[in-house]
From TrEMBL:
Residues 1-20 form the signal peptide. SUPFAM superfamilies: Carboxypeptidase regulatory domain-like. Keywords: Signal. The keyword Protein biosynthesis does not apply. The keyword Repeat does not apply. This is DUF5686 and carboxypeptidase regulatory-like domain-containing protein. The lineage of its organism: Bacteria, Pseudomonadati, Bacteroidota, Flavobacteriia, Flavobacteriales.
Amino acid sequence: MLLKKSLSLLCLLLTINAVAQIKGTVTDDKGNPLPFVNIFEENTYNGTTSNDKGKFALNVKTENPTVIFQYLGYKTVKKTIAKNQFAEMLTITLVEENITLQEVVINPKDNPANEIIRNAIKNKKENSEKTARFKSDFYSRGIIRLKDAPKTIMGQKFDFFDEILDSTRSGIIYLSETVSKITFQKPDKMKEVIVASKVSGKDNGFSFNNAASVNFDFYENYLPFEVNVVSPIADNAFNYYKYKFEGSFFTENRQQINKIKVIPRRETEPVMEGYIYIVDDSYAVYATDLSIKGNQMQSPAIDKLTLKQSYSYNSINKIWVKNTQTLDFIAGLLSIKLNGRFTYVYSNFEFEKQFEKKTFTNEILSFQENANKKEDSFWNTIRPVPLTEEESTDYIKKDVLQTKKKSKVYLDSIDAKHNKFKVMNVLSGYSYKNSFKKWSIDYDGPLTSLSFNTVQGYRINAGLSYTKRDDDKRTFTRVSSKFDYGFSEEKIRATANYTHKFNNTDNSLLTLNGGSSVNQFNSNNPISNIVNTVSTLFFKNNFMKLYEKNFVSGFFGRELLNGIYLNVSAEYAERKPLYNTTDFSIIKSDDLYTSNNPLSPTDETSAAISKHNLVKTNIAMRFNFGQKYISRPDGKYNIPNDDYPSLSIGYEKTFAATDKNYEYDFVAAKVNYDVTLGNKGTLQMAFKAGKFFNAENISFVDYRHFNGNQTHIGQSDSYTNVFNLLPYYAASTNDSYSETHFEHNDKGYFMNKIPLLKHLQSQLVLGFHNLAVPNRKPYQEFSVGLDNLGFGKYRLFRVDYVRSYQSGYQGDGVIFGLKFLNVLE
């Protein structure tokens, strides 16, 4: 089979190099270049598009081809190219189209555009089915430019791109191309083989451009951006759009094309605006020129994104098919301004009635051997869209720069600048790099780690690590140590860590740890250091409960098969109780701190645990059903399948305890399932259950603890792993339990329709949570909240109102979601 594929590829490449090529420029009648002109051989699906400067190159397969030049707003040109003209640089001139309103006669009582759109919706299933299964060649090119880059951001130097920017601090920061063969079946089955890949400035680079990520099909109800964007010809399109008929024109084969202006009914919803062109009679899509704002598709960093598509027609099989597509964007954040364009060309279509059963697998993309080693002669022959002068210069400039950047002299000079030591680094941290040998030493200073708890008082951390990287294989080895000192406790603790990532294919990872540490009884760490510090010092709420662990442990994890993961771990630990050592607070109050014993908050002399030793082992498996993946020479990249849930199961056993009563067996399972509900948001579900055996007298450390929240501060993106009004250790169990979490985020579906409130650009979140443990009435929470709150592009807040029930109403409260705290931790 491998030999057969190799021979097929060889034949493909020989064929590509055997065809002739015509080149030229497309301009308007004033000599201005026309970008993104749809260019193809008549009655074939062999086509290309012009670049930003109107330049084009088309590989043709006949001696005297008839080539069609099609551009929105201009009359289509059909030109037969004689064989002796192949060596010439052709100039094709297009003149503006005379779009008339008299060409369509429809019931005058109705908006003519509405009738055209209704017919497009009515016929879209038939039109979509015509291109439901195909093979084709695919070319993509992406370019991203940085414009007017700031020299500093929030007081920090921004010099990462200095060497490639011009005097105005502007320039190309990303340029790449791919050539591939794709096999596709609607709605989402894809197999893509990258034949060639090129990344500016990286002679071993592999582009991430691929066909699956840009499969925007207007015949589907939704276009997959950050949220599902409603297609202008979706089944429910009239709920989101108004339409205006702006006239019609005829193609070179006398087919009438209707130009329809697409107008959003509400600017706050995930909808596009611009133009869609519909073929009369068949009501197929002829072209699109539509834009959407970043806040409409909930990508606040993007200011505007424009999606253009052009379709070509084959009079033999009478199918309109998309052959060119561009994505243009303008973006910006923190004074950084970006713009770019991604160009895609589909050609040489082969339509199939059906594919063999094993055509599609979970591998959706792979690379041919040496795909990133193609010579310029190959690219000059196969590239369907000529490079602009700017792009050609960038390849040359970065090839030179790349050679320079790989040299020891250059890397040492960069490191010398980076490695300069300053006195403040003692507190803030310091990093020493040897980029040529690919290792670094990092020191984490205590300044940013300062926190407070009633056991240690003010607490600081400092760390030292050594990392050796293999960038080509994306692996690393790290040895690190961390020191922790509590000023009130007057005690220093230290831990050491060794981590090695073996490969980037099955992500085999080995971790060894040891030392002494202070830990929360709940190993999920439900209270962050920063939240606990504020809660304790300003409100005298010391919810964080701690114990000491002196330990050695090991962990190994890897992917056994696609979507099946195995983790094993073992730990030998001495656990010791800890007590409050300070009653300090910033806000003076007569309130007393609770004890460090979560089972007896008012007893300062007793502890939740006694000193003991224990060996704990754990084996866990996770099944990501239907997982897709991309195979790249530098690793395997997994893509979750939203159609299926994820299942995790685990078994934990302890032994060699100082007291046999501390030994137990434990089994647990968890199911996570996120469902996208069209444009109505997402429903997240989490189901958890577990059971202890022979665990009547185990240590409180080993109980199943649930993620409560008494601080009224939320930090996570979703709350499907927390009970927001549950006291942290009120329901801890050494028996059995079950958890159920539901959270529906409407992604703006309802909020975008409410007057005044729609301007918040918020998302309505509904939640339900249930916890069941023996000898305790089930505990439930119901919540309603608003997510995606903030200012401008910074949407980092969430507010929820929560009510709890347990044999009746228990209480209510407001949870303030501060998602930016995750970055600070």
